[in-house]
Amino acid sequence: MREVAIVSAGMTRFGELWESSLRDLFAEAALEALAAAKVDRLDSIVVGCMSGGQFVGQEHIGPLMADQIGMAGVAATHVESACASGGVALRTAFLEVASGASDLVLAAGVEKMTDGADVTAVLATAADQELEAFHGITFPGLYAMIARAHMQANGTTEEDLAWVAVKNHRHGALNPKAQFAREVKLEEVMKSSMVSDPLRLLCCSPVSDGAAAVLLCPLEHAKRYTDHPVKIRGTGLATSTMALADRKDPAFLDAVQLSGERAYKMAGVGPADIQVAEVHDCFAIAEICCIEALGLVEKGAGRHAARTGLTALGGKIPVNTSGGLKSKGHPVGATGIAQAIEIFEQLRGGAGARQVKGARIGLAQNMGGSGASSVVHVFEGV
Ligand code: COA
Predict the structure, then answer these.
(1) Which among 285, 276, 87 is positioned nearest to 171, based on CA atoms?
(2) What are the backbone dihedrals phi and psi of residue 336, each rounded to the nearest 5 degrees, phi first?
């Protein structure tokens, strides 16, 4: 396999973007990535999108997006893995370049969630229809059950969850592209309305529009496009049972662990080598579970990480320096690529006020559903 690098990135602001359609969002992010690398041709485009069909009535996303940026004719593929669609698009693009099949591939993610669809019902189609959604469970409901199981097993409290929100909003306040770029106080989180007990409004990621794109090429060509490429050292994809009730331990995200182990193995690194990470905090409890499953903290110790500053900017292992899904926003198909962009910028010294000094190795973890799919990438600044 060839070594692969990311050489440029483009991203819209995340939020309720009434003025932009699904295709506008994609075009803005894609054209920014192409312009940054001074590229006007591609071998292939891979687009992650959870559900253009249900959110805005648009399927056949691959050719639509190629056409939208004036590249009808190019190979274009749409990939879906619920909220992990962006991360899986990155992995697909990586494999395409690594295999030698293509030299220049755009990996993108896009979602338009605020155009009037019943968002909670659409998102619930990423749960098991027969065993879960049919009975009325929603994603806040599924993660509330994960939170309860974690509380029972580890003594995790509502305050531990709230600290994750406080930390990520503090990071997001430094990110001009974040949907909620403002700090929140612990008391504010603890008093926000209950969405699904024990998850309050400020412990949930919001409903968002947005798009993100990165340009991949063989590492040996990377300096043609940028002085500061970032190498993708490892990729890992894994699955778990669709239904939460079928898992031995609902508080432990086994697909996250497996995908992390696969990515670490390919990269030849371990959790102790990771200096900055973006993980899938769709709900505050998810960040706690993900950092445990990735081995960034001991199993059961995740509840303390935000409160003690371990995972804050300036801490030993900063997590979700972008603000995470919580503060930056979560346009589901775009999230995995946006996470990769944060790590790309961190490893090339381009993260501005959020910069983690001296970071050379970073990780992004993107999850589908209640953890039925997870994809991890390990990156290195070169
Ligand atoms: N974080 C911070 N502020 C938020 C917020 C969030 N997650 N969600 C909404 N707000 C703010 C809004 O800006 C609004 O403020 P305003 O009154 O000053 O304008 C207020 O809170 C109420 O917002 P509203 O949009 O009416 O909330 P809602 O009740 O319709 O939706 C949730 C709130 C949490 C239910 C919704 O965002 C949600 O379903 N999130 C989870 C999405 C999800 O499941 N994603 C997939 C994960 S696997």
Answers:
(1) 276
(2) -60, -35
Using a 6 Å CB cutoff, which residues line ligand 1?
Answer: 83, 120, 123, 139-140, 180, 195, 201-202, 204-207, 282, 330
Q: Which of 16, 207, 326, 374 to mutate to test the pocket of ligand 1 (most atoms within 8 A of CB)?
A: 207
Residue 288 is part of which domain span?
127-205+231-381
Residues 282, 216 within the same domain: no
The CA 319 to ligand 1 mean position distance, Å, reads: 22
* pLDDT at residue 162, as a whole number: 98
- On whether the CB atoms of residues 209 and 338 are closer than 8 A, the answer is no
- The CATH number of the domain holding residue 106 is 3.40.47.10
pLDDT tens digits, one per residue of 97-141: 999 999 999 999 999 999 989 999 999 999 999 999 999 999 999
Active site residues: 83, 330
Q: How far is CA 179 from CA 52, 62, 183, 211, 342, in A?
A: 21, 26, 12, 13, 15
